[in-house]
Amino acid sequence: MRVLIMVHALTGGGAERVAASWGNGLANLNHNVYILTNTDNQSYETKNVNIIERQIPLKKSNSIYTKIIRKIFSSSVSFFQLLHVIVKYKPDIIINVLYLNPYALLLARFFSGRKVPIIMTDHNAYERPSGSEFKWKQWKNKFIDNKLFDIVTVLTNRDKEILVKKGFDNIEVLHNPLFLKPLSSIPPKDKTILAVGRLDAWHVKGFDILLNVWNRISEKYNDWKLIIVGDGSKEIKNNLQQLITHNKESVIFKSFTSDIIEEYKKASIFVLSSRYEGWGLVAVEAMSQGCATIACDYHGRQAEFITDYKNGLLCSPDDAIELQAKIEDAISNKELRESLQKNAIVNLEKFSEKNIAKRIEKIVSTGTRE
Hints:
The protein is an alpha/beta fold. The chain contains 13 helices and 13 strands.
């Protein structure tokens, strides 16, 4: 099978990492994989995968005039480039990550004369808490545009239920692949708690809640440290640092690193403090490296990979009191913490690149429309 994966880049974000893992998993199953991307920068490794860099006119110029020209002609350029790629590489399936040029892709498929199925993949939840509603474009992508594609994959059963109730019949659940190999035993751990995410998305990630909770926790456990890994503007970082009112040296901000595995291996506890989260790939990655993981469970999504007090701890989103209690449970109860660490690395094989690639094969074989 010839597989074409469309993704904005192979660096920087969770969805981009997932695209690389899909490519690796499908290539290892002897499929011919092509990844069409907007840039030649690549921080996520691919093996036996063909990378196609899209040609973006005047992309090295950022003058106001070239920006206007790119804006005006971007749709037409995307259409002709996608038409060329479909005709040249003759894919048997196209996987589009996060609505990259969706209308140009549909038109290109039509004019190519090839009835190649398109899988649209969404990596975010299909509901939001009050005060964080979808913007119009996001809502349109999710609840209107998704009807145009042969298959739409969502991260959780909760999201599938939402769309099925709205009359969708093209929805499949596809969990994110785990690119890390789960440990066979737990290494020595530091007295550190780890959180990972873009600092500019601090509200979504609940970093303000986590830091306010940490002010109280660090008074009781001043030999523990909190490490937050993620990039963001200097202003946002400064604003977050302003929230630290006690034991400021116990909080360490680190820039995002492609070698995040070392942070997972050293941390005793991982916290996913998000107000809302589509799934939580970083939490699964942390579990694979033996972290006792605490996740704010957004309407059952994180409960799809964590069973409370068995392989991790769950708490309600936006609940500082419960989050503090769960973190203190993991810190103060060494027996519980070590039990969670040992159980965390069990049964993660179902999320391996190979098994997720097999899931894609099954979706393609049984889920495409005639």
